[in-house]
TrEMBL record:
InterPro entries: MetalloPept_cat_dom_sf
Upper lineage: Bacteria, Pseudomonadati, Pseudomonadota, Betaproteobacteria, Burkholderiales
Protein name (record): Peptidase M10 metallopeptidase domain-containing protein
Length: 172
């Protein structure tokens, strides 16, 4: 992945309850939170009907691209897909659930893959964690009895541990 990382955000197909400046601000907050990693990065809005520049990483809303998940990073294709369908379902099930926090976590997590963190963390609290790996392996909680008692274990922004892994991968 070439440096600096240039993320561009396209608001088309976003759920109606997120507005473009709001999502852009969340993406910018994620980039800012990753900045102690030392990799230069920026986020800009991509105006409608404009094409991304060579090397840009597009943040787009697509259920196909996100494969039914909240978000999916396709690093070779330079695409970070957000899943409108799952955000819609979350809102249907619990309209009061703070979807903005989920979106912040998803953006921070998926961006982490573009910073070179391909492997997931096993500590639930890390933004680069996962719920379970599809093979029955769950992330580790300091208090295992907390499983099922809270909705979201992951931090919304990279933790000190996420940042340390990022620095180790990217060097000085
Ligand atoms: Zn991931």
């Amino acid at each position: 992945m070439s440096r600096p990382l240039r993320f561009v955000y396209r608001h088309d197909a976003a759920p109606a309850w997120f507005d473009a400046p709001q999502v852009l601000a969340l993406a910018q907050r994620a980039v800012q939170a990753w900045s102690p990693c030392g990799v230069p990065a920026s986020v800009q809005a991509l105006p409608p009907r404009t094409s991304p520049a060579e090397g840009d990483i597009q943040i787009v809303w697509t259920d196909t691209g996100s494969r039914g998940q909240f978000g999916l990073a396709n690093v070779p294709a330079r695409t970070l897909s957000l899943g409108p369908g799952l955000f819609r379902l979350l809102r249907e099930r619990n309209p009061r659930y703070p979807a903005e926090q989920t979106l912040q976590m998803v953006l921070s997590h998926e961006m982490g893959h573009f910073y070179g963190l391909m492997a997931h963390s096993r500590r639930c609290v890390d933004v680069m964690s996962y719920y379970d790996d599809g093979k029955g392996q769950r992330c580790t909680l300091r208090d295992p009895s907390a499983w099922g008692s809270v909705v979201e274990y992951r931090s919304m922004l990279p933790t000190a541990c996420d940042l340390a892994r990022c620095r180790a991968l990217n060097g000085p």
